[in-house]
Amino acid sequence: MSVTGNQRQIYLRLVASLRPHFRTDVNLPERIQKLLAREKRFGSRDRRLYRELIYTTVRYLPWVEPLLDQDSERAAATVAWLSVRNKATASYRTELTSGWPDCPEKLSNKAAHLEQDPKVLLPNWISAECPEALATKELDVLNRRAPLWLRLQTPDLDIVTDEFDENGWSWKISPIKPDAIEVTSESNVTDSKSYRHGVFEVQDLGSQLILETNQIEAGGHWLDACAGAGGKSLQLSRMLGTEGKLAVHDIRESAIDELLERAERAGLENIVIPANPTQDHYDGVLIDAPCSGSGTWRRSPHLKWVTTTEDIAEFARVQLSLLEEYADCVNPGGQMVYATCSLNHRENQGVVASFLDRRKDYAMTPPFRDFGYTPSPLGLNILPARYDTDGFFVATMRRR
Ligand SMILES: C[S@@+](CC[C@H](N)C(=O)[O-])C[C@H]1O[C@@H](n2cnc3c(N)ncnc32)[C@H](O)[C@@H]1O
């Protein structure tokens, strides 16, 4: 059998073993990781090829599933055609799709070529939860792999760009945020010297914009109540500066350990871990709440198929309870910043409306900067298409 024929067989075997889990397993990425790690004869390029093919299958599942049942060779060729062209996939794609036109950039053109409906690539419930996501430009971006964004932790851009140039990695600076860099070529940025020295962090541009929509004064005392491994904490810590103080909390202790490691790498010294975060008072509290993650479908396409409307209702309940838990910790005149990486109105504007209904001592504040997004009276949707990002939501409420 030819090399490509053999690769196609392997792809079909891997997908057959994953198929029962595509629409049920919230931890599908870990399952895929383990599956690929078990294949001892795979080199790193093989793993990159099969990972890309599997993720393409999940991203376009409603288009690919019927083909897998009817004509597995056609399914494999379709997935190859839809996959991203890079060093790992190039020859496989070329051989399996010879005679096909080049795969177009736009989803609507891909759909037209395959005689498919682009809207089925999002779950049915999205039309009620976030109809904006069905606009052609959003659909297009939501079904494309996310770019790689970095956030600089130094004013000296050259430290990073000199190293990237030496490695032959191409990059560009965001026109709206001069310390955000997009890496536009294949790269391994976390292996770089600048990364090891804390000169930058990997963080989606949309995530970087959340804090930028707020007026955060240097020298303030803030709490990041759902800090996780610190994506936003590190950014907030820099905004507060050496005179400021940032308390961080998360129910996952292992995430806080990782946050502290990253803070040390970045040389940040204003981060503290409160013994009881709800006992203190702060100038601002950030609730970057657990959510359905519908804004991260570009990176985690399986969430499109495993998330149910019951899950969304449960997230909204937890989100509201987090806001209520921390509402008394904000000093009068201080800010409560509520953020999610969800597109769903029920988890976003819906939660904010319920909170404001219960806490008359809070009022909405318009965004300090809106970056051209359209603010609603209950917060700002950071939709993916405008700057090619993940999707987020942010609302700032001031305590009277
Ligand atoms: C969206 S993630 C936070 C991401 C993080 N802020 C960042 O920028 O990388 C939500 C976090 O909330 C945490 N979490 C869930 N329930 C919580 C609770 N009751 N109190 C505090 N943290 C909670 C989760 O462990 C998770 O790390």
Shape: globular
Low-confidence stretches: none
For the record, the CATH class of the largest domain is Alpha Beta
Helix content: 40-55%
**What fraction of residues sit in β-strands?**
15-25%
What does this entry look like structurally?
The protein has 400 residues and is an alpha/beta fold. The protein folds into three domains: 3-120, no CATH class; 148-203, Sun protein, domain 3 (Alpha-Beta Plaits, 2-Layer Sandwich); 206-399, Vaccinia Virus protein VP39 (Rossmann fold, 3-Layer(aba) Sandwich). It is built from 17 helices and 13 strands. The protein has helices at residues 3-18, 28-38, 44-59, 61-70, 72-82, 90-96, 107-114, 126-129, 136-142, 157-167, 193-196, 205-212, 231-240, 253-265, 303-306, 309-326, 349-358; strands spanning 148-152, 171-173, 180-183, 200-202, 221-224, 245-248, 271-272, 282-288, 330-340, 362-365, 375-376, 379-382, 392-399. Strands 5, 6, 7, 8, 9, 10, 11, 12 and 13 form a nine-stranded mixed β-sheet that branches. Strand 6 (245-248), helix 14 (253-265) and strand 7 (271-272) form a beta-alpha-beta unit. Helix 2 packs antiparallel against helix 3. It is globular, with a radius of gyration of 22 Å. The N and C termini lie far apart (73 Å). S-adenosylmethionine (SAM) is lined by residues 225-229, 231-232, 249-252, 255, 288, 290, 322, 341.
